[in-house]
Amino acid sequence: MRLIKDKNYRNLAIVISIPLLIIAQYYLFKFGVLRPMVKGVEIQIVDGEYIKDIDKYVVKLNDTLELSIGDYITIPSYAKEPNIRFKVLDNTETLKIEGNKMTALKEGFSSIGIMKNSRVLKKATIKVVDPKVENLNLNISDDLNYVGDTAKINSTVQVDYKKFEDSYKAVYESSNENILRIENNEIKAVGVGTATVYAKSGDKEESISYTIRAKVAKIEISDNLQIEIGQNQKLNPSIITSPRNLKHPNITYELLGSKIPVSRAIRLDSDGTVVGLREGEEKVKIICGNKSKIITINVVKESITNKSIENLNLTYEVVDNKMIVKLTWDYFKDVFNYDIYLRNNTLNESEFKMVKSINIKESEVGSDKKVTTTLEIDLTNNQNQDLDIYVVGKTTVGNTKQSNTQSIKYDPSPIENEKVENLSGTINKENNTVEATWGLMNNPNYTYSVYIKDNTDIKEEFRLYKDNLNTNNVTIDTKGPDINLDIYVIANYNGRSSIKSEVINIK
Fold it and tell me: Which spans are transmembrane here (predicted)?
């Protein structure tokens, strides 16, 4: 009976303890007192490439990637989540792990593992690579020739690990943003000149250069031009650009028609200068950028009315209260009549008046091919004179253009009361010379004398260095680089002299 009774108690205890054990283990797993089994963990690297042949993950240097342990299970399922983490399993410092982020620090091999406490559940070998750009192709969709043109830009990049090609993009640059501007993979020509587009990826670089011109909207110049035989005229077309006011392309000129040079009516230079050779008509094509225009040039006989009397010069002297003015100018072929015009500024005259006409014969022209005549001006009522003079040639077909104008400013004050002013000098160290200059006096017939004293020689006195000078400058040679000169200048006329200038010292 006792054995039966003990057995019943034992069975009852077992029946009661089983639920208690089940409940107890549930809470022990639930609150992490007991650690569950973990099944199905796998190391997964987002954007990493697993290469089966070498059983390794390959990641790119400096990339930070997300790590995942996959869809694992815990046994029992109601157990508290286990403490699972990632860890670098070596000390090569190739990788760094923070949480579930892995950063590739340097090229090489390393291992990582999924850790449950101190136990490695799964491990993987990681190869860190720095992919090299093997090829870079720069592609631009359209030609860029003129301001305002646009084109799309793109590139293909090939690296030695194809997995990473998508992460390699080309960076685009323009050598001059004022000519070519790149925005959102589009190139726009914004200015005139030459610029280069660069594409860079890794250690590869490709480039394409462009010369951008202004688009020419119009070439403006008269359709017909007339020049004379022997006349030079430069074509000056006005180039209208689009947009306006840009630097236009170079202008070129072409003679049209197939003629031998000796039969051409004109000579056309590369800069657009036209020279009339013989009577006739020629067509010239003017080309600028994308535009051209053809004009007609007619060459006619030389007209005397387009020519000027050349090289008018004068000298004068005062004799018995009269100013005798001697005029000379170049003889103009086939012009035998000349008018001399004078304006007396002393009398406040505003217009020139014809004061003399002369007739000559070709036989009277000397070997110097000069025409000479004189004017007499009475000084009785006014000694001071301020005169302007020019000459015009006359023919039956018209007059020449006037000559250059010559002026006379005469002040009869005695030279003894005048003084040379504004004397100055500079040293030319390279040549060991002194350049002296002074102000010209009113009478063009005055000559000048220069006196110097070399202070490097204590015995030296002032001496005449040069006289009969018609200009207001002189170059003085010195004895060497040690220069110390005193200089003064006087003016001379008809054996009389002016007051000497101030003495200057040059050293």
Answer: 12-29
